Hints:
Elements: H1 2-16, E1 26-28, E2 46-48, E3 54-56, E4 64-70, H2 75-91, E5 96-102, H3 107-117, E6 123-125, H4 130-135, E7 144-148, E8 154-159, H5 164-174
Amino acid sequence: MKRNGFLLVLTLMGTTALFGPTPSDSQDVTTDSCETDGQTANLDFTLKNMHGADVALSDHLGKVILLDFWATWCAPCRIEIPGFIEMVDNYRERGFSVLGVSIDDTPDALQFYAEEMHMNYPVLIGDGRDDIKDAYGPLIGFPTSFIIARDGTICHQHTGFAPKEQFIQEIEALL
């Protein structure tokens, strides 16, 4: 019962985020294209992907990274994913990666969901990985996404739904 209540609260938080980001929803960091205080992302994590293979986040250093914490039950997450797929298609050759960290889904559920959504980027298992959640948290709503520059600087953070155009603008500025 506690878990269902917690999921309801998170779903409601995510649903209210559907109406667009407010200034407090987007926290931004600083290099030329960053709007934060220059916090460095902790990429010293290796997570299993939905097929059981190890994926080291540090292998993506040197690329512009969209690190997305999400869940299959999250309606705003489902709305953002097609935009992420499109961005991977458009920017992969320019050094862009999306890493999707599922916060509480099983590998079987993720495989089904990723196939249904045609996800073309690594889908990683975050269930039971409080270390990475704590490193980027507190994660108070979903989705929570971080735009990380090639040098590892966190440039933008979005909690709740953010429009694809906002992500594109922030990513293009870093590419």
